[in-house]
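Hey,
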Amino acid sequence: MLAYFLRRILGLAAVLLMMSFAVFCLQSIIPADPARAIAGPLTPLSNVNALRQQLGLDDPIVVQYGRFLSRLARGDLGASVRTRQPVAADIRQYLPASLELSLAALCIGLLLAGILAVLPHIVGGSGGLRFLFIAAGSVPIFMSALLLVYVFWFRLGWLPGSGRMSDADFAGPSGFNLIDALIGGRGDLSLDAIRHLLLPACALALPIAVAVGRSLNSALREVMQQAYIGTARGKGLRETAVVLRHGLRNAASPTLSMIGLQIRLLFGNLLIVELVFGWPGLGLYMVQSLTSADLPAVLGVTIVLGTFYILVNIVVEILQTLADPRIEL
């Protein structure tokens, strides 16, 4: 176990180094100028050039990357060009919103995936429901997000189409608005937080539901043909008990792999969904930083998402060994 975690820690460090260096190399391709973004469009060119020298933007990429690694070793991600705040402080501000949205999307997606996969084995004849889920999940993420906004906000007016709360000044200690409102005993704020959360969470949940549901359904179909399933049925167990007690665990390993993959893909979809719904999280922060050539912010978010990417992979591998003792770390 110790050797496994040591390998994973070394792998995490190597991945983050490669990701950060790739982002550094991209700055030489992107036409935007961070110095111009800081100085403003009307600043004379001589002042912009002086600012570039002051920031070290004219130094070779390797020199700039070395300075970045030196600061990173001290826990300093630099200052954002756009917000003029430390990148670490910006990430602490926007990360809870993204985590809240991601967790809600994951819960909704897994619930729908369970319905999609398990229901046909219990009641049968759920082809229409499966077709509906697959059709919804096949729509590109930006299109499904826009359709949800158009139907449920613009046309029907049932749910809000942007933001996290109607009260933009609400700020709880944890940064998770729903949890903070529940702890504070504010039922009105809790309901408001749920209403704002539903549309973006559903947009993120649809691809998860379809991919995980199809994987679990396929694994269950194979498991339900095994001899021990026939033995369980022969003992007089109801079909629901057979599926839930004997089928799900044995179908868990490929399903967990698909869940891990979908969680990692979720990080990329966050950029699109948070932009469409105006959700003030890391995805929207990343998009705004990219348009402003804010390299420190882009690097900071890249490191955070890369860390989550590796951690998700570690958790999935551990859960697979727990679900199937034949699998070793």
